[in-house]
Specification:
This is DUF3572 family protein. InterPro entries: DUF3572. It holds the Pfam family DUF3572. The chain is built from six helices and no strands. The chain is an all-alpha fold. It has one domain. Helix 1 packs across helix 4 and helix 4 packs across helix 6. The radius of gyration is 12 Å and the shape is globular.
């Protein structure tokens, strides 16, 4: 597993403890809780997890504070998982 994938999984783990945010993420992605286990094997889904966090700075900072993750690690994971064709909004 790459560091970017590990960051995405850490974000998902954090979201699992934030019911309101997890519900919003699932609604936006059209994923249901029972299909999460299989979805984490999809690189596009992992990119979506990081993109979700990157799309809202207060949520990004809350994740970083709660998990002691430097924001730069999330930015790096976003760049790696989104690829050169989809650099996202940094």
């Amino acid at each position: 597993m790459t560091p970017a994938e590990e960051t995405a999984i850490a974000i998902l783990g954090w979201l699992a403890n934030e019911p309101e945010l997890l519900g919003r993420f699932l609604a936006l992605t059209g994923t249901d809780p029972t299909s999460l286990r299989n979805a984490v094997n999809d690189p596009g889904f992992l990119a979506g997890i990081v993109d979700f966090l990157m799309g809202h700075e207060p949520t990004l900072l809350a994740f970083c504070e709660a998990t002691c993750t430097p924001p730069e690690d999330v930015v790096r994971a976003h760049a790696m998982l989104s690829g050169p064709d989809n650099p996202g909004d940094f």
